[in-house]
Amino acid sequence: MTVRTQTQDFDTGFELSQLRNARKDTGAVVSFIGQVRDLNEGGTVSQLTLEHYPGMTEKALEAIVSQAQSRWDIFDALVIHRVGILQPTDQIVLVAVSSAHRGEAFKACEFIMDYLKTEAPFWKKEVTSQGERWVDAKLTDDDARERWK
Amino acid sequence: MKIKILYFARLKETLKFSTEDLELPNDDFARTLTILKLKAYLAKRNDTWQQMLMGKLKVRGAINHELVDDNAPITDGDEVAFFPPVTGG
Predict the structure, then answer these.
(1) Which of A41-45, B71-75, B84-88 has the lowest mean pLDDT?
(2) Gap from B40 CA to chain A (nearest CA, Å)
(3) Parallel, antiparallel, or unpaired: how do β-strands B79-83 and B2-7 relate?
(4) The domain at B2-83 falls in which architecture?
(5) What is the per-residue burial (b if ≥16 Cβ within 10 Å, else e) of A92-122?
(6) Domain A2-36+54-122: which CATH class?
């Protein structure tokens, strides 16, 4: 398992090939990339700041990945989440999961994202044409997590 | 008892506090301290604190890096954190 929070960008191609080549019995790698949109809640977003809780964030992400590992038959999982100031089209998060077959990896990847969205301590603040605003948590994200219970 | 409190995001910005060390006398209040009791105690500071910690905003609590609910007990030396619902990813 690898969990990282960092200000710098990441190279998705490199990260996925590391995961693919780590084991010869890997048959599937499923990945998700989240990126900054220039439109949210009807406003134009020019910048996004991501705050986190150093120490707790990494621990929370590790706990989420551990849960995924105990629930599905996966080989390895990687989570990279950026913090600091980001612009539209910048990558925010990469979640990648390797397994023998695609089914387990698809489910584990989605599970990790749904839990990350609702349990990992990150907070987004947007700069829009109307000024700065904290992004509110969405109930649909809670619903997405609940379906795994 | 002595605890450390951290504030994040909207709470940090509005309260103008990112971290503080809080010392409480070792009385019954401290011995039965919970997340909710601490919120109510801090909320007495002024209207802004009242509004941020006991108002409409949903505030989540963590003790020593674990998400906990309002009834979780706080003990000497704990690192407590308060923050709004998370919005990462």
Answers:
(1) A41-45
(2) 23
(3) parallel
(4) Roll (3.10)
(5) bbbbbbbbeeeebbebbbbbbbbbbbbbbbb
(6) alpha beta
